[in-house]
Design a protein that fits this description.
7 helices, nine-stranded mixed sheet, alpha/beta, 244 residues, Rossmann fold, two-stranded antiparallel ribbon
């Protein structure tokens, strides 16, 4: 049985957003999973029905997260927010965590994972940190523009099979304080911005600040999705009793 992967999205699915969604779908299918698009629910009481349908949760990229969810007022440089999406994805993530379901968070998705578990963000890294490199590249999305260093003896290092890789970059916010049961697994080589987080112990949670679904021909990107689908496959087998 192929694992079913829930993929979060925005209601704004047209244009460029639609093409980005297609990239996530293709990455999941290529790695052996079955994608299922999860639209934000208006009634979060229905979350459990969605969670019971999936074996892994892919939290996708998008706009900024409302800082009220980590106890802060909006910074002058805060960008666009989607309150409905925040109000849906945070409890969805918490429920998936409760079930120890495999999670993969990409860009905003990594930040949602962190906030859902009680962590916080830098609302704008250019003003929060000194001497940062360019984290909002103007190169094509398939092109890697800066280097990251992966922490020794982390699951992320085992997945990627490397101590350092180059990644693409499309963000102005970043992890500040890691959430509960999360550790920093990679940082930008030059300025130390958090580039990956993972679950402690054997918790199957991985968040990356870059967009592996968009990078071309990168073995690290393939490895991320193969790990995720494999973990979801294990979850599917353990939860097989509820399958029709």
């Amino acid at each position: 049985m192929k694992p079913i992967i829930g993929i979060t999205c925005s209601y704004k699915m047209g244009g460029q957003q639609g093409s980005r969604l297609a990239s996530y779908v293709m990455a999941v299918e290529t790695a052996g999973g079955v994608p299922l698009i999860l639209v934000p629910l208006r009634d979060t009481a229905n979350l459990e029905y969605q969670v019971e349908l999936i074996d892994g949760l892919l939290l996708t990229g998008g706009v900024d997260i409302d800082p009220r969810h980590y106890g802060e007022e909006p910074h002058q440089c805060l960008g666009t927010i989607e309150p409905d999406r925040d109000g849906y994805e945070i409890p969805l993530t918490r429920r998936a965590v409760e079930k120890k379901m495999p999670l993969l968070g990409i860009c905003r998705g990594m930040q949602i994972m962190n906030v859902a578990l009680g962590g916080s963000l830098h609302q704008d890294i250019a003003t929060a940190l000194k001497r940062t490199i360019k984290h909002r590249q103007e190169a094509p999305n398939w092109y890697a523009t800066h280097s990251i260093v992966i922490e020794e003896n982390t699951n992320t290092q085992r997945i990627l099979g490397a101590k350092s890789i180059r990644v693409n970059s499309f963000h102005h916010q970043a992890i500040n304080k890691p959430g509960e049961d999360l550790i920093v697994a990679a940082r930008s080589e030059t300025d130390g911005v958090v580039e990956a987080i993972e679950g402690t112990g054997n918790l199957p949670f991985l968040g990356v600040q870059w967009h592996p679904e968009a990078l071309r021909g990168e073995e690290s990107s393939t490895a991320i999705f193969h790990w995720f689908i494999s973990a979801a496959g294990g979850y599917s087998r353990k939860q097989g009793a509820y399958r029709a």
